[in-house]
Design brief:
There is one protein chain. This protein is of the alpha+beta class. It has a domain at 24-248: Neuraminidase, CATH 2.120.10. Helices cover 14% and strands 21% of the residues. The chain has helices at residues 205-212, 222-228, 255-289; strands at 24-28, 35-39, 42-43, 55-56, 61-66, 71-76, 78-79, 85-86, 89-94, 100-105, 108-109, 119-124, 128-131, 145-149, 153-157, 180-184, 189-191, 298-300, 306-308. A 5-stranded mixed sheet has the order 7-13-12-10-9, with no helix packed on it. The protein has a 4-stranded antiparallel sheet with strand order 1-2-5-6, with no helix packed on it. Strand 5 and strand 6 form a beta hairpin. The longest helix is centred in the last third of the chain and has 35 residues, at 255-289. The protein is globular and about 85 Å long. The protein starts with 23 loop residues before the first strand and ends in a 62-residue tail after the last strand. 24% of the residues are buried. This is Kelch repeat protein.
C-alpha cells in the first residue's frame, strides 16, 4: 500500500480452482503487515456457467493469505465448526492476550439453504471455533453486514429474512428496529440497546478457559505458525503491504495537507467575516454610549456657500431593512457628474438655478431701437 500501486496477484494457489464467492475475507493483525483469512463461500472452475458446479467450502480447513510474502497457507480448525454456509457476516476484535477473535453471524447453510441465527467465534492463533448459546434476541438472516462499535459490541445491519428466499419478499416486518441488532462479544449475548459504557473488548470466558488449559493449534505449516507468532497491533486492513513493497513513500502531494488547506481556505473567509461583523457592532455600541456633541460642523458646499453638514448615522448591515429619513437641512444642492454607465438616471436642476451670465436681472425681452 505504501507504493500507491494497484496489483493483480494470481490466486491460483487458493483452493482447488482459485475462485471464490459468497464467503468472507477477514483481516487479522498477525505477521509483518497483517493476514487475510478466507471463510465459507463457494468455489468452482473459472469456466463454470451453472450454479450446480459450485462447491461449498468447509470451515474445518481454511485458507490464509500473507500479502507481504505473497503466500497462501491452509490450516485445520477444531472445536464447534459451523456448517458450510454463505451470505453471513464477519467482524473481529483483538483480545488482551495477543489473541484475535473472528465473529461469524447468520448466513445460509449450503446443504439445506436454511437461514441461520447462530454466532460462531474463531479464535486465533488457536484456530478453534466456539459457539454462542444465547439466541433469545437473535434472528435468522443473511446478506447482512457486521461491524464493531463501542469496543465490544457487534452491530448487525440489514439483511434478508428466511421468507425472502421462498418468494415472500417484504411480507414480514423486520423484528429488529431499523434492521439493527447488537451483540455483546464479551458476554456472548444479544441485547436490544447500545451501551456506550460497556467498556473495551475482552475475550469471552469460554475462549480464555480454552487457552488456559494449554490448548494450541495443530499447525500444518511451521511458516504459518511463525506468522501467527508475530503480533502486528498497528497493522490495519488499509495498511497491508504487497511483496517487495519496500520503496519509500511517494513524493507526491501530502493528502492531509491538501485536505487541511482546503478546510482552512473555507474557514478563513468565514472567520474574517465574523470578526468584521463583531467589530462593527462593538463600534456601534461604543458610538451609542458616547456623549453627542450638539454643535454642528461647518463645511463649504460645491458652489462656495456655507452650509451645515448633517450628522451621519451608521447603519448596521444586519439592520439593512430599516427605513431612514434624510435630515431636513441638507444644504445647497450640488450637481452630480453623470457617467456613461449612469446614462439612464434622471436628474432635476435646482429651482434657483441663477441668472445667465452678462445679464443684470431677471430674464426680459428687449426691442431693438428704430
Amino acid at each position: 500500500m505504501r507504493s500507491g500501486e494497484m496489483r493483480n496477484i494470481s490466486s491460483s494457489r487458493f483452493g482447488k480452482y482459485g475462485t471464490f464467492k459468497g464467503g468472507s475475507l477477514q483481516f487479522v493483525p498477525f505477521g509483518p503487515e497483517g493476514l487475510l483469512v478466507v471463510l465459507g463461500g463457494w468455489e468452482a472452475p473459472v469456466s463454470a456457467t451453472r450454479f450446480s458446479i459450485w462447491d461449498a467450502m468447509a470451515f474445518d480447513k481454511i485458507s490464509v493469505y500473507d500479502p507481504y510474502g505473497d503466500e497462501w497457507y491452509h490450516q485445520q480448525t477444531t472445536g464447534d465448526v459451523p456448517f458450510r454456509k454463505e451470505k453471513f457476516c464477519t467482524t473481529g476484535a483483538p483480545g488482551p492476550n495477543n489473541t484475535y477473535e473472528i465473529f461469524i453471524y447468520g448466513g445460509r447453510e449450503t446443504n439445506t439453504f436454511a437461514t441461520s441465527n447462530e454466532v460462531h467465534i474463531l479464535s486465533l492463533p488457536g484456530f478453534n471455533f466456539f459457539k454462542a448459546d444465547n439466541k433469545s434476541l437473535s434472528t435468522q438472516r443473511a446478506d447482512h453486514a457486521c461491524t464493531v462499535i463501542g469496543g465490544r459490541q457487534m452491530l448487525s445491519v440489514g439483511g434478508l429474512l428466511p421468507e425472502t428466499f421462498i418468494g415472500k419478499r417484504f411480507s414480514t416486518p423486520d423484528p429488529w428496529p431499523l434492521g439493527l441488532g447488537i451483540f455483546d462479544m464479551t458476554e456472548l449475548r444479544w441485547t436490544n440497546r447500545y451501551d456506550p459504557n460497556a467498556g473495551g473488548y475482552d475475550s469471552p470466558k469460554v475462549v480464555k478457559d480454552w487457552y488456559s488449559q494449554g490448548n494450541v493449534a495443530n499447525w500444518v505449516s511451521p511458516e504459518l505458525k511463525a506468522l501467527f507468532s508475530q503480533w502486528s497491533p498497528n497493522a490495519t486492513a488499509s495498511e497491508v503491504g504487497l511483496p517487495g513493497d519496500t520503496e519509500p513513500q511517494p513524493s507526491g502531494p501530502n493528502i492531509g495537507a491538501i485536505v487541511g488547506g482546503a478546510v482552512g481556505g473555507v474557514a478563513a473567509p468565514v472567520l474574517v467575516a465574523g470578526l468584521v461583523l463583531f467589530f462593527r457592532r462593538r463600534r456601534k455600541r461604543q458610538v451609542a454610549a458616547a456623549p453627542q456633541d450638539s454643535s454642528p460642523s461647518s463645511k463649504f458646499g460645491s458652489v462656495g456657500t456655507a452650509y451645515t453638514a448633517p450628522t451621519l448615522t451608521e447603519i448596521d448591515e444586519a439592520g439593512s431593512n430599516n427605513l431612514s429619513e434624510l435630515p431636513g437641512n441638507h444644504g445647497v444642492p450640488t450637481f452630480t457628474e453623470t457617467h456613461e454607465a449612469d446614462s439612464n438616471n434622471l436628474l432635476e436642476l435646482p429651482a434657483n438655478y441663477g441668472v445667465p451670465a452678462g445679464s443684470h436681472g431677471p430674464l426680459s425681452r428687449h426691442e431693438m431701437a428704430a
